[in-house]
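Async update (no meeting this week)

Hi team, since we skipped the sync, here's where things stand on the single-chain job. The sequence we agreed to prioritize is pasted below, unchanged from the tracker. I ran it this morning and attached the output directly underneath so nobody has to dig for it. Comments welcome in thread, and please keep replies under the output.
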Amino acid sequence: MSKYSLMKNGNIKITLKVKLTRQSGRTRIFDAQEKKIDIRTVAAFAKARRWQQWIDEGVFSSTLELAKHLGMDSSYIARTIRLNNVSPRIVRSFINGTAPSGLSLTKLIQPLPASWEDQEKMFGYPMV
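Output:
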C-alpha cells in the first residue's frame, strides 16, 4: 500500500512497499500487489510541485531563472511544471500503480483540458 503526505519543509513524502526485478537488463519497480509504478512519472510530479513552490516563494522569479540555476532547458522546466494542473485522481493513480497502461508522462506533459473531469474522460477514467 502506498502513502503520501506533505512534510513540514514542503516536500511530498511517498512511502511504497516495492519489489525490484530485472527484465531485459532493466530494473523494474513493482509494488507489493504487483502493480507497476511508473517511478519516472511519480518523480516528475514531485519535481513539478517543488519547482512551482520555489517560484511561488520567490526563490526564483521565473522558469527561465530556475532553468539557468539547474542547468536545464527552460522548455523542459515549463512542461514539467505544467504537471501541477493534472487531476489529483490521475496523480494518485500513478502513485498507487493503478494508472491506465497507455497513459504516460509523454501524454501528461502535452497541453491538457483545464477541467480535471475532462482530463479524466480523455484518459479513460470511469466517472465517479
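Quick observations from my side:
The mean pLDDT is 87.
The first strand starts at residue 3 and ends at 6.
Reply here if anything looks off.
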